[in-house]
UniProtKB/TrEMBL annotation:
Organism of provenance: Embleya hyalina
UniProt protein name: Sugar ABC transporter permease
Primary localization class, coarse: membrane
Span of domain ABC transmembrane type-1: 78-290
Keyword GTP-binding: no
A Gene Ontology BP annotation from the UniProt entry: transmembrane transport
Length: 304
């Protein structure tokens, strides 16, 4: 008969048992793929002769990273998504904040219906949502284009100057409801005593929203900002689906499209892995910077 396990050992092993499922999933879904991408980025396929023999996988050092850093198309894609995020993210989060404040207002009616209606676009897969909007962008099938043409306002939503903002429209339509729900949940956690005290001090709805609600949901806004920045740098689905419909989108339109183009279409897995690793590092740095800036702004506003 085995001896019973001492209580002290059981207490020490209990946290490890709870952390084990997360650790296994983290290693399988994150650590191992990242490690594999790093290893792959340090190798290349070397072809010799007339190409009649199979290529050999050889160590390349940082050659793939050097090529990626000198790739003008990749840098153009990076600049494009940064411009996209600088305009789209504030607009989307501003709309999400306004919708959350409207739902949280005392005079709001049918809150459950509007909450579901705002969130519903997020439940539609990104590919399906982009296809739906594509019908409204294409001149042959779009009633919007026909109406604008009828009043003398010709428009080309998939043209070179407008396609980026057409993509931004799809992303905003899809993700505003999700961010609204995060902010609305933070609003629900605010104690009602604060609203009662503000009402006794003579604060109206607008002043209460600006002086009490917005500062207290600033951490939720910071969280959605970080998520939105990460999503911006990972922009892929919408331009990839719209690419067959317009010549304004090339294979390197966004950084992830560039990595896919190099790895899958050009069979250069080392180069694609190097672009992916650089994009991951850039995402971590930018997300950390946004988080720090948001924390400083939040602390500064709360001290006022």
């Amino acid at each position: 008969m085995s001896a019973p396990i001492p209580r002290r050992k059981r207490r020490r092993s209990a946290p490890l048992m709870f952390l084990a499922p997360f650790g296994v999933l983290f290693a399988a879904m994150y650590a191992v793929p990242v490690g594999y991408a790093i290893v792959e980025s340090l190798h290349k396929m070397q072809r010799s002769g007339l190409g009649l023999t199979p290529p050999k996988r050889v160590y390349a050092g940082f050659e793939n990273y050097t090529k990626a850093l000198h790739d003008d198309a990749l840098w153009h894609g990076v600049g494009r998504v940064l411009l996209f995020g600088a305009i789209q993210v504030p607009v989307m989060l501003g709309l999400a904040l306004v919708l959350a404040l409207l739902l949280d207002a005392k005079s709001a009616r049918l809150k459950g219906f509007f909450r579901t209606a705002y969130f519903l676009p997020y439940a539609i897969p990104g590919v399906v949502a982009t296809i739906l909007w594509a019908f409204l962008y294409m001149p042959r099938s779009s009633p919007v284009v026909s109406m604008l043409d009828a009043v003398g306002l010709p428009s080309d939503f998939l043209g070179e100057d407008a396609v980026l903002w057409s993509i931004a429209n799809v992303v905003t339509w899809t993700w505003t409801g999700y961010n609204m729900l995060v902010i609305y949940s933070a609003l629900q956690a605010i104690p009602q005593e604060l609203y009662e005290a503000a009402e006794l001090d003579g604060c109206g709805p607008w002043r209460t929203a600006w002086r009490i609600k917005v500062p207290l949901v600033a951490p939720a806004i910071a969280l959605t900002t970080v998520f939105s920045v990460i999503g911006t740098l990972q922009l892929y689905t919408e331009p990839r689906v719209l690419r067959p419909l317009t010549s304004s989108l090339d294979a390197d339109y966004t950084p992830i499209m560039s990595a896919y183009h190099k790895a899958v279409e050009n069979n250069d897995y080392g180069q694609g892995a190097a672009v992916s690793v650089l994009l991951a590092l850039g995402t971590c740095v930018l997300s950390f910077a946004v988080l720090k800036i948001s924390a400083r702004l939040t602390n500064g506003r709360s001290s006022l």
